[in-house]
Amino acid sequence: MSLRRLFGSRTRSKLLNLFLKNAGRSFYVRELTRKIDEEINSVRRELENLEGLGLISASKKKNRKYYTVDKSFYLYPELEKLINKVEEPAENKIVNHIKQLKTLRFVLLTGRFIEDPKSPIDVLMVGQISDKHKLKGILKRFEQELGQEVNYALMDVAEFSTRRSVKDRFLMSALSDDAVILYDTLKFKKSQPPSAEGKPKKKDLGKPKISSSKSKKEPKSDSQPHVYIEKQI
Hints:
The protein is of the alpha+beta class. The protein folds into 2 domains: about 5-85, Arc Repressor Mutant, subunit A (Orthogonal Bundle); about 90-230, no CATH class. The protein is about 40% helix and about 15% strand. The chain has helices at about 5, 10-20, 30-35, 40-55, 75-85, 90-100, 130-145, 155-165, 170-175; strands at about 25-30, 55-60, 65-70, 105-110, 125, 150-155, 180-185, 210, 225-230. The longest helix is centred in the middle third of the chain and has 15 residues, at about 130-145. It is elongated.
């Protein structure tokens, strides 16, 4: 079942998904239009409807009107449960998007997907991607469907192997026992027995260079994975 069929409006269903999955966070109108990729007039109309129902509340800050979900709304618990029931699992959604990138060898979910706030990323991808704009577009569409921002890292097979062999701290923090492998042609195993020489010590190959997935220039680094973080506007 889709939220659009249930609530009768694509814009309204997207707004509900965004607000209910980001309870406690405030958004202004133009920010919402970008996040759900809908026309501003349609967004304004549905915001008025939701505010009139009492599901969201509005406040003004620095000449901007911000909207946030009102947890005291009498149907809030039921709507939150309903959103989770009718929405396709996040794992299925991202797999459908990632399949468009034929050269990826390995995809892993961590961070917010396994409720691990200590992980620096949410998605780890290994492979050779020549078209970074296509990758950003795919992740942006996934974020819109998910209703949440996603931090992801992309590295080639050689870098992944090097970081794994020296037990790089950044990589090890992402490869927790609870992390979910979605796609793997590398025949990767998260845990391996120590070698005869003993268990190798963890090394730090440097902090990953962080940039926005909306930035025009790609970060340049031979030894650090590219980590793209969608900025909160």
